[in-house]
Amino acid sequence: xxxxxxxxxVSVALGQTARITCGGNNIxxxxxxxxxxxxxxxxxxVIYRDSNRPSGIPERFSGSNSGNTAxxxxxxxxxxxxxxYYCQVWDSSTxxxxxxxxxxxx
Amino acid sequence: xxxxVQSGAEVKKPGESLxxxxxxxxxxxxxxxxxxxxxxxxxxxxxxxRIDPSDSYTNYSPSFQGxxxxxxxxxxxxxxxxWSSLKASDTAMYYCARLSHGDYEDYWGQGTLVTVSS
Lengths: 106, 118
Fold this sequence. Notes:
The complex is a heterodimer.
Chain A lengths: L8 E4 L5 E6 L9 E5 L6 E4 L13 E6 L2 E6 L8 E9 L2 E4 L3 E5 L1
Parallel strand pairs in A: 1-9
Antiparallel strand pairs in A: 2-6, 3-4, 3-7, 5-6, 7-8, 7-9
Chain B lengths: L2 E4 L3 E3 L5 E8 L7 E7 L5 E8 L4 E4 L8 E5 L4 E6 L8 E9 L3 E5 L3 E5 L2
Parallel strand pairs in B: 2-11
Antiparallel strand pairs in B: 1-3, 3-8, 4-5, 4-9, 5-6, 7-8, 9-10, 9-11
């Protein structure tokens, strides 16, 4: 089965840039989506199809995807960006989520 | 406004059956698949399966095939997730979500916490 690997945690200083990676075999050939989940809340879509932002998501969130790695970038990180982040793809009619990354804003 | 409203928390004993629900509103319910996602305590997201409410066609993750049943009643814009015999390991938060373009979940329910304990 297809696997998506994310770092367990990423720390970023307030106002700086955080990059969260999502590794998978030839992931660049797939559409990658990203979700933010704050404690006690349902996930929220922050990036779809590699690099598109849903309405209401700040421009500080951006995405890219190439080769074996997709990346979610959070620019000018704010305290409110502290959350778990999950990447997601489809493989053989099965949806696959990444292992999740906890982002801490220092 | 698109909304998915899930049924309330459940506490069950091992071996009991259960059906939880997810009611959609603010959009054409039959135009979008519904996914179900499990999140065990302190763990990540796991996709369980999806249903096309227009014809009730389902597609399950191999990890959940045979363990749960996904269904829908389009007349009342509601999708369901059910178990015939719960186990302690089914204790988790369960989310339904609208699947946009068959590709990503753009709206999520608030979650239903299922606790299975003797």
